[in-house]
Amino acid sequence: MKTKSLGFIGGGRITNIILRAFTNFDEVFDEVVVYDTQPEAVEKLREQFHFVHDGDLLQAASQPIVFIALHPPAIMETLEQIKEVVGKNTVVISLAPKITLAQLASKLNTRLLARMIPNATSYNNDGFNPIAFEEPLEKADRKKIKRFLNILGKIFITEESKLESYAVVSAMLPTYFWFQWQTMQDIAEQTGLSKEEANRAIRASLKKALRLYFDAGLTPEEVMDLIPVKPLGEHEAAIKSMYQTKLVGLFEKIKS
After folding, report:
1. Please, which residues have CB within 8 angstroms of residue 229's CB and are 6 or more apart in sequence?
2. What is the model's pTM?
3. pLDDT tens digits for 223-236?
4. DSSP 136
5. DSSP secondary structure letters along 16-57
6. Per DSSP, which regions of the chain are E strands?
7. Could you tell me what percent of the chain has a pLDDT over 90?
8. Could you give the angle at the alpha carbon of 54 between the alpha carbons of 48 and 60, nearest 5°?
């Protein structure tokens, strides 16, 4: 799928991530029209990507490929405003949970509709991005859209009903751990390692621990029993409870 122009409705973090992924591979466009209600968001993108232009809502929606990068509460009203300029051959990719393909189709005169849950790791072209398509969409069109997005990293087709689960257990997953890794970096330096030694130890240990957990053929209980000393063991029940309460609650909120 070749195109020289894109439209983004919403100029926040995920728009920045996607544009970064494209530019990492020198995938530069003649024009990327970004609309956001906050002009400073678009200006920030323009400072990083010379091909970004600010435009109004209808200009962004008039491009051949349009990304909807909005929070769910704003989407249906926005669709109502852009429906007259979205043509039957416009590819529309929604990046939000909650708003379904059927809801998108009820407002827009295009069959080229997709929903994708993007990952922050797409920033360095290493994303894990589930995508769902409108059922009537032909296989050839699905392949073209998927091929276009492959530069973000792994793109795989899934049932639409699973997208919100992927949002919680994949897209947001790094946020549950990144601050812990940062804390371990600090502790490593406090206890005598250099910054480089700390980073190498934590990176290598995490990679090897993941392989052990998923690939050794052991149950989770057997893996965890391999290390007898558990300094945070007394807090595990509270931490598990926080995960269960916060994340299942979040899933139910975005799914309903």
Report:
1. none
2. 0.93
3. 999 999 999 999 99
4. T
5. HHHHHHHHHTT---SEEEEE-SSHHHHHHHHHH-TTEEE--H
6. 5-9, 31-35, 52-54, 65-68, 91-94, 113-116, 127-133, 153-157
7. 93
8. 115
